[in-house]
Amino acid sequence: MEAITQWLKKTVEHLVDPEKEERVQTLIRILHDGIRTQRQAFSLSAALRGVECSPSDVEMAREEVFRRIAGRGWADGKLTPDEREVARWVAERLELPDARAQEIHVEFARRHFGAALAQAMDDGILDAAEEARLREIAGSLGWTLAQFARQFFQAEGEAFLRGVFLACVADGQIKQGEWNYLLTLTQKLGIAHDELLRAIQPQAQAFVERVLAEAKADGRLTRHEEATLRWLLDNLGLAPPYRQYVSQEVGQLRALTDVAEGRLPSLPPPTGIGIRSGEIVHLHTLATWREMRVLKSGTTYRDHQGSLTLTDNRLLFSSVTKTLGLNLRKIVSHRGGPNWIEVQVEGKPASVFCLAGESPLPCAIFTAAVAMANQTLVAKSEGQPARHIPRDVRQRVWQRYGGRCAECGAMAEGQRCALCASPRRDRTRLCVVEKPKDVIRLEATGGYNGLYHVLGGLVAPMDGRGPEALDLARLERRVAEGGVEEVILALSPTAEGDGTALCVADRLKGTGARLTRLARGLPTGASLDYANPGMLADALRGRQDVGP
């Protein structure tokens, strides 16, 4: 833009004053010859005496003379102290302001700095010799490399940084080593991390879009693709709205990949829906069932507003007007889209379900559930191959546990209780209780959101009940499998409870989990008159600060 402006200025001046260029060239010769021959005796006013010229002619001429003399010093790409002193003396004799003389020096330095940096980047590595060369150019102006680099990059740096970033991702990926080198390079050049991220924003966003598009091309998200996208979101400083968009796309693609590989979500049984023992709920959403009835008078449709629930065995629709249950194995054809599913059962008209919201996930879950029910799809796992456990086998397992959750031991209507099946529970905390009723009491407080483990009793040697009678082996296995950070002992403050707590602590001492127990002391509203010594001792040990 500056070059265009200068060209326009010269063109207009030539049209208005066609003799100006000739006068300026004459002044250049006079001033240059005067400095060369007169040296210390040279005077600008004396040199211009009797010469017909305007102030702008003088300004242009003296700048050009200074530029020619300074250019000789910068010919080798640096300015020695002697050369800088000569340039200072020339500027003084030409009465050229120091600021303007410095600007001309910076122009030369920027030109050589850019050429040296481009040469250094030929192999993509800034070695010690190349860094020293850049420092030498910056030192010619009395600046550090970081100081001059900031001046350089204010005008031309963004294009350079974008070019380096594009070189890093030219093969369609960026390695950690390449990114670390880019960070080190910009740090050496005095460029702040946030300046780098701001400069490469357009290219970084385009690269993320490219990686995301490649991941979505086959409808499957590999672990490598997911890790790459997560790394890009964490390191490229993308704008929050765009980060949120990519995160949502990655999350949806991950869910679709899991479903396509037979890893369907497990939901807690919805209230009011007749879920059979052992059934696993995969989907529950608001829906409208468009019932088609074929009559002699013609085909009619009737809409029913309600909810659609999909288990591993059945499709259930429930509303105040009509309910429907379809065995997945009896479905002969189906199709769907982001907000609808059409199901065809042999001998019956097709049923269309319009779903709330628009997402490809419900239709994908339904397709996978039908395939798994007909054993044309088997769930894949990251490690050992998964085994399909038929529903009747799960039913027998549940009955074996006496109607209790096979994971925690609490009361349950199916193989797993609603708490263990819920994805919203905090799985880093595990509360150990004596009996299933204790789970109900603790849940009623509303102050705990973790998982539970029911021991099935307390250690009571006087009654002939030792640690082997409790469900300690499964507790140890659950904690040892990883993910549990805290085990809370919610046992009665009795001799049996304390003895059981010691047994649990001994069993879990090698797992690395933190063990805590419920606070003890005076209950709310209690009087000291009725407190026993043990209660008072616990209250004193658990005392708390009062006041700010």
At CATH level 3, the topology of the domain at 261-400 is: PH-domain like
Per CATH, the class of the domain at 261-400 reads Mainly Beta
Q: Which CATH-level-2 architecture of the domain at 261-400?
A: Roll
**CA radius of gyration:** 40 Å
Strand content: 5-15%
| Share of residues in helices | 40-55%
Descriptive notes:
By secondary structure, the protein is of the alpha/beta class. Among the domains are: 261-400, Pleckstrin-homology domain (PH domain)/Phosphotyrosine-binding domain (PTB) (PH-domain like), CATH 2.30.29; 403-522 and 532-538, Dna Topoisomerase Vi A Subunit, Chain: A, domain 2. Helix content is 49%, strand content 14%. It contains 20 helices and 11 strands. The strands form 2 sheets. The protein has a 7-stranded antiparallel sheet, with helices on one face. A 4-stranded parallel sheet has the order 9-8-10-11. The longest helix has 24 residues, at 145-168. Mean pLDDT is 80; it is low at 11-16 and 383-387.
Summarize the structure.
Helix content is 49%, strand content 14%.
Write the layout of secondary structure elements.
Layout (H helix, E strand, L loop, with lengths): L1 H15 L3 H19 L5 H4 L7 H19 L7 H13 L4 H23 L7 H12 L5 H24 L7 H13 L4 H7 L1 H17 L5 H13 L4 H21 L20 E15 L2 E14 L2 E6 L4 E4 L3 E7 L2 E6 L5 E5 L5 H13 L17 H10 L17 H4 L4 E8 L2 H10 L4 E5 L17 H9 L5 E4 L5 H14 L5 E4 L15 H9 L7
Helix pairs in contact: 2-4, 4-5, 4-6, 6-7, 7-8, 8-9, 11-12, 11-13, 12-13, 13-14
